[in-house]
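Supplementary Methods, section 5.1.

A reviewer requested that the exact input to the structure prediction be made available. We therefore reproduce it here, unchanged from the version used in the analyses.
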Amino acid sequence: MQRTRLRLRSTALRSTVAAAAALAAGVGGLAATTPATAADRMSSASTPLPAELEAVRAAEATKLYGDPAERPMDRRKTGLISLGDSEISGEGVGTYEPGTNRPGNWCHRSPDAAIHRTGIPADVTYNVSCSGAHTGNIRIGGTKQYADELVQSDNLAVKARNTRIKMVLLVAGANDDLQFGPVMTDCVTRWLTLQGPCEPKYAPGWQARVDGLVPKVEQTVRDLRSVMRGAGYADGDYKMVVMGYPSPIGPDIKDNPDFPGKIPGGCAGYDSDAAWGRNSAVPAFERGMRRAAASTGSVYLDSSRLFHGHEVCMEDPWARGLYIDLSKPGLPDENSVRQSFHPNIRGHEAFASCLTQMYGSGLREASCADPASTGKPVLFAGAWDDAYKPLRNAGTGTCADIPGSTTRKGTAVGGWDCHGGRNQGWWYDADRKSLRTELSHDRCLDVPGAKYGAGTGLVLWDCSGAANQQFVRDGSTIRPAASTGVRDARGGEGPAAAPALHARGDQRFA
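The structure derived from this sequence is encoded token-by-token as follows.
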């Protein structure tokens, strides 16, 4: 079949009633949230801790209150706590708590980590996560990562008895079957040594890795629930939040007008591997985390698209690139580069903003992203997986398509056979009147130069909220908001496309 282009046409691009409903309910299925609050409930008495943990609890209570007694719930300070791995510990921020940035303890807990930066009212915040942690370092009866660290669930047991915990945040799974860090290291090494992309090596078994880690995350959540019950909490006394992982890298780095180069900017690696990570590896991981949250009754925060437009080597990066810590004692080793490809302080600010919005939303499942590259994340109800849908040409049966899944600025949007791939997924953002591609939250359908003449081909461009990126649903028609006499239309022959083809007047999209 011949690939077609989606172009503007002076005749109307009409959708069937079903098409309009599908676009509204499917493509435009996410809506920005508004806050809601819930009253705190009281709890029952806690069960006694083992002597070792009770000594820790008593010492911490003395620091908090001046004496070691375990107080009634309504007389305690309120608290928030995060558990998990380097994604939430603060690895990559660069500033670390004393004792967590040295041989014998590389937890890299940062005072600027997200849990300390939310707007959720709390008297104290606890970050007991640790870089390199796998679920076995978090679960009941698990293993300590370092001699001077508690198992994270034990740390929760202590904190939950001394404060009234309002939110338990878990970000874990990347260091289990997925082995995300070693995979990233191997991909960069292969690029530096000219061995070729790593996608062919890891892609065939990636879903199996995700499937392997999901039960471990699920059991970890259940263990944390058990710890909280043992501390006297009912399940509804606090929010159990499972947060997914964003993609720190992307393939569109050369669209940055100030692109520094891969080595200076820290975005070392093959572009094809970056595309695989963003388009396939991270989305598969996100779906697994979502399953784990759903099966355990946890609140789920989908952050998989949060760093889109803010990847390493982009204009306002929210992740740290390849970094070698020359101040580390001893010879260079894996600990010298462990800060690489982790959220920086801007990334943790973004996490904190999303968590704050979610805490007050009353939602069980939500997604967060920066919709207009303003640096201000916005929370949306539901998960991204449910938001993006194909745009189908009712006349030809073909779908709006981004050739080769390429999202560089100026990529022409054309038509192709419908296959359900991410390069054919679209979301109508009703608040901003934009059509976004499923490949990147930072790329929107764009009328080049705001030239609305018939036959104008539409392209992808940075989402800016500008008038030439705004589209409206007008009954059964989708049209550019700034040009009421022009409609988006589909190509006549061959596979269909996303908003940018040369169309006939009898074409309709569902």
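Confidence is low (pLDDT under 50) at residues 10-29, 33-41, 489-510. These observations are discussed further in the main text.
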